[in-house]
Write a structure and sequence with these properties.
The structure is a homodimer.
Chain A: H1 10-24, H2 31-38, H3 52-75, H4 80-97, H5 99-103, H6 113-130, H7 137-159, H8 169-182
Chain A binds a DNA duplex through loops.
DNA sequence: ATCTCTGGCTAACGTCATTAGCTTTTTGGC
DNA sequence: GCCAAAAAGCTAATGACGTTAGCCAGAGAT
């Protein structure tokens, strides 16, 4: 038989998985779907990825790094409240742009060795943003947690259609961001 | 054969589903597991429940109502900041007590006719709690959303082990609650 | 030219949801 | 009390999926 090779790689498999998730939601992430998209039989994926569980982890890393990149450019050249607001808006914007992808992001990256590095980098960006407030290490951690809780809470609810009433969501988020900024040192 | 009937009902099936979720997590919620727990063959469950999708909805209603009950008792006899703080703490406490169950709660109840009633009741409790601040209808909605985003964000991150560092989570939540209360009218 | 590794394949199995169709129990009307 | 019909259970079968085992072709190195 003369069948040209698909020329797959772990990266290409994750690319396909990302496309599947973007198009059909996290629930549609199945090895069968990824195989179909890459033009390969399902078991062939095991040559590049250990299984569905590992694919999910690799996808998580990808999304984590993707978000970190956006955050980094969002805070570039900003500081103080300006930077924090940019961070919060970048978070929401990312989730709005890629809701299904966001659902693929692990919420506890630090607990998986494979994800810890990517999670740590994202944490670093936030901690760096807070540095100008002169927060001590522990205080910075508490504040980072608050920022994350607020951004994740709002964004995940918005992405899953959790806000059913017609009021403008931009207004709600502005109010939330204002409240958070007011709670930072020096305000 | 003389096989006594199991005497199942939709309610009993949901009870079993809840037990499965509490013990083994939402990912373990399978008709096979529920059937095993109720001592019945898997297809027999279809006599009481239309399928896994409906079971999930019924479970969602149950959890939603359960939470609403806690919220109601939490705000009883309180008002203003005191009531809002009680609400936020009741939210977190519920999720800590039943993390897997919370994951079974739909975030967008208003979009499913079957869930809308239960979701609306929960919303009512929060809106009633905010009444003493004299917020107009639209402002009350924005504030309710903020409260929900904060509570859901923190609680879901905590429940999924999203806070990896050793700092005390009670301290973080206190800070968050304080910030939110400070953002309410009259503070 | 051959050897070996790599990346594909098919076949098979177990788990799950779901449907169809059968049997037994319960129950309501008489 | 008796009988029909509805209710509640069952087994068997199907199809999607993940996963494993084992086979085969092509590419590169020797």
């Amino acid at each position: 038989m003369v069948v040209p090779r698909a020329g797959l790689s772990a990266t290409a498999v994750v690319d396909a998985a990302l496309a599947v998730v973007d198009e059909a939601g996290l629930g549609a992430l199945t090895l069968a779907a990824v195989a179909a998209r890459t033009g390969v039989a399902t078991p062939s994926l095991y040559k590049h990825v250990a299984g569905l569980a590992e694919l999910r982890v690799l996808l998580g890393i990808r999304v984590l790094e993707d978000m970190t990149g956006r955050f980094t450019t969002a805070v570039l050249g900003r500081s103080g409240d300006d930077a924090v607001a940019a961070l919060l808006h970048a978070y929401r914007d990312y989730v709005r742009a890629h809701p299904a992808r966001y659902a693929a992001m692990p919420l506890d990256p630090l607990h998986d060795p494979a994800l810890a590095a990517a999670g740590g980098k994202q944490l670093e960006v936030v901690l760096a943003t807070l540095r100008s407030y002169g927060l001590t290490d522990s205080a910075a951690v508490h504040t980072t947690r608050c920022l994350r809780a607020v951004a994740h809470g709002f964004a995940s609810l918005e992405a899953s259609g959790g806000f059913g009433l017609p009021e403008d969501l931009d207004d709600t988020y502005d109010q939330l961001v204002r409240t958070v900024l007011a709670g930072l040192p020096g305000n």
